[in-house]
Design brief:
By secondary structure, this protein is mainly alpha-helical. The chain has helices at residues 9-30, 40-61, 65-68, 72-93, 108-124, 128-138, 145-152, 167-178, 181-198, 231-240, 277-286. The protein has eleven helices and no strands. α2 packs antiparallel against α4 (72-93), α5 runs antiparallel to α6 (128-138) and α8 packs antiparallel against α9 (181-198). The longest helix has 22 residues, at 9-30. It is globular and about 55 Å long.
Length: 288
């Protein structure tokens, strides 16, 4: 069953097939002598993003959660390669940075990237060796109270920061985590409801995927859309055993990640291209 009904079965089948073909080609290119070594750090990091996109497209298409987890190690391989190449190129050419991405948690894109990978790691219960590799890539703790607390549930030695770097929408998630048990389900649902709306930003803090699937700004025909999944909520549920019963079936909540053996938490929906403006306006008012 398709988990994300914004796109139809044909879209997901075609995009997954193209992603698989591209990733295979890109890995082959990386194994060969480079024609442009200075670009290799960015090329390889972009490939790690492509692998994450494929993982989420597999989920959107309705594929096995257990099979999705098999790609995690490959993603780590390519991110590690990107870091190694960046160190070499920067040293050789005396550059401060060799990639477009700002690798600092104060950058919202990098924050989401790290949060998503940590969330997937917890939900998929990746092996300890992969978990240690991931934390090396994410970096030391002490910078963000929310992400550090999530990580500390599996790495007890993690230093927990005392500030929340991105209050919107993540203050809502902190509130859900700290709430009494009988209030957690409703507060988690509120966070998931407001997650996408409150991630809207201007400039380089805009999530790179934010408008994918938007019929006016980046329609499905461009092929970039991979779903809009609030993996941060799944991370919190996996870490703190929150009650996610009110989120099940929500179009942004990937509840099947926590239930790999089924049945699916996603309801069968009529195919639709986008949510109505009235519905979107209602969500925006609710999140103010």
């Amino acid at each position: 069953m398709i988990r994300d009904s914004m796109a139809n079965e044909g879209y997901w089948f075609e995009r997954v097939a193209k992603d698989c073909a591209w990733i295979e080609k890109a890995l082959k290119l990386l194994s060969e002598p480079s024609r442009n070594p200075v670009y290799d750090p960015q090329f390889s990091f972009d490939l790690s993003k492509d692998i994450l996109r494929l993982m989420l497209r597999h989920y959107s298409q309705g594929d096995s959660v257990l099979e999705i987890g098999l790609l995690f190690s490959k993603l780590l391989d390519v991110w590690e390669l990107s870091n190694g190449l960046a160190d070499e190129v920067c040293a050789e050419h005396n550059l401060r940075a060799c990639r477009e991405w700002n690798f600092d948690l104060s950058n919202l894109n990098h924050y989401i990237w790290c949060f998503w990978l940590v969330g997937l790691a917890l939900a998929l219960q990746i092996p300890d060796d992969q978990w240690k590799r991931l934390l090396t890539l994410v970096g030391d703790g002490g910078k963000d109270v929310l992400l550090d607390r999530v990580i500390a549930t599996r790495q007890t030695s993690r230093i927990v920061g005392d500030v929340l770097l991105h209050t919107k929408p993540y203050a809502r998630l902190v509130k859900a985590i700290d709430a009494p048990d009988d209030q957690q389900a409703a507060l988690l649902q509120e966070f998931v409801d407001c997650w996408y709306v409150e991630l809207n930003r201007r400039g380089n803090q805009q999530p790179w995927w934010y408008h994918y699937g938007n019929p006016e700004k980046h329609p499905l025909e461009k092929g970039s859309y991979f779903g809009r999944w609030c993996i941060e909520a799944v991370a919190a549920v996996a870490a703190f055993k929150l009650d996610d019963s009110k989120c099940l079936g929500h179009p942004h909540y990937p509840g099947d990640l926590l239930r790999p053996h089924g049945p699916s938490t996603h309801t069968v929906q009529m195919e639709k291209k986008s949510r109505s403006w009235l519905e979107l306006l209602g969500i925006k008012r609710h999140c103010q």
